[in-house]
Amino acid sequence: MLDTKTEPWKRSNLQVFWRELASSEHIVQLYENDKVFLDSLEGFAGSGILAGEAVVLIATEEHLNAIKKRLVNHGFDIASLIASDRFIGLDASETLSKFMVNNWPDEQLFFETVKAVFKRAQRNSRKVRAFGEMVAVLWKEGFKDATVQLENLWNQFHKKGAFSLFCAYPKLAFTQDSNTSIHTICCEHSKIIDGSPRPSTEIYYKAVGLS
Predict the structure, then answer these.
(1) Residue 199 domain-assigned?
(2) What is the greatest pairwise CA distance in the chain?
(3) How many domains is the chain built from?
(4) How far is CA 4 from CA 8, 143, 182, 205, in A?
(5) Category of 75 on φ-ψ map: left (φ > 0), alpha (ψ -120 to 50) or beta
(6) Is 42 inside a domain boundary?
(7) Which CATH number goes with the domain that contains 61?
(8) For every one of its 211 residues, what pLDDT tens digit does the chain have, with 9 covering 90 and above?
(9) What does the DSSP 8-state code read for residue 9?
C-alpha cells in the first residue's frame, strides 16, 4: 500500500490520460468544485465514446444533465448513443434504492443491479468504462461505513470483468477527521486524480492503495 502523502504527483495530457486508461484502473477524484469534476467526467466519457466503448454513468440528475449537454456541444449524438446502449445514464439515488437495505448495500442485490446494467453495455463484446457517484451520495448522507463497503463491492465486481472505473467526491464532504477519511477512501482505488483547478489540458495523478 502506497502512502498517498509521499507518492509524487505525475502530470499527463488530459486526453492522453483518459484515452489510455487501463481496464484495471479504479480511479477517484476529490474535487474542489463542479467545473473541475465535470471537466474530468467529460474527458472520461468522451474518450470512451471515441474509442468505441460503452460508457455507464451513475450520477446525480444535475451532473448527468450537465455532462450530456457538454457532450452534445462537442458534437456527440447522445440520442443515438443512448439508443444503442453506448451511453447509459442512471440516477445515483434511484440506483442506490435497488440494493440498499437498512442503509447498507446488500451484496447480492448490488451484483444483480450492476450485472444487468453491464449486460446492456457489453453488448457486441464492447469494452466498458463506468463512473459511479453513488458512493458520494452515501458519504454526503453520513453513511461512511456503508460508503466504504460499496467501494469494496465495486472492487469485487471490478475484479470479475475488464472495465475502467471512476468515482468522485466533493472535497467539502471531508470536513471532519479529513486526513483519515480521505486515506480510507483513497486506499480503495488504484489512482487519485487531483481535484484542484488546473489548465483544462492537464491532469495530475498518483498511485494510491490498490495495485
Answers:
(1) no
(2) 46
(3) 1
(4) 8, 24, 10, 11
(5) left
(6) yes
(7) 3.40.50
(8) 334 455 689 999 988 999 888 888 999 999 999 999 999 999 999 999 999 999 999 999 999 999 999 999 999 999 999 999 999 999 999 999 999 999 999 999 999 999 999 999 999 999 999 999 999 999 999 999 999 999 999 999 998 888 999 999 998 877 655 555 777 788 889 899 999 998 878 899 998 865 4
(9) P
For cell 454513468, the residue is: 57
DSSP one-letter code for 190: S
C-alpha cell at 75: 458534437
- Phi and psi at residue 156, to the nearest 5°: -65, -45
Predicted TM-score (pTM) of this structure: 0.90
Q: Please report whether residue 118 resides in a domain.
A: yes
Q: How far is CA 43 from CA 13, 53, 162, in A?
A: 11, 13, 20
> Can you read off the three cell numbers belonging to residue 130?
463506468
Place of cell 467501494: 151
Q: Is residue 26 part of a domain?
A: no
Q: For residue 94, which amino acid is it?
A: E
Q: The domain containing residue 133 runs over which residues?
A: 33-172
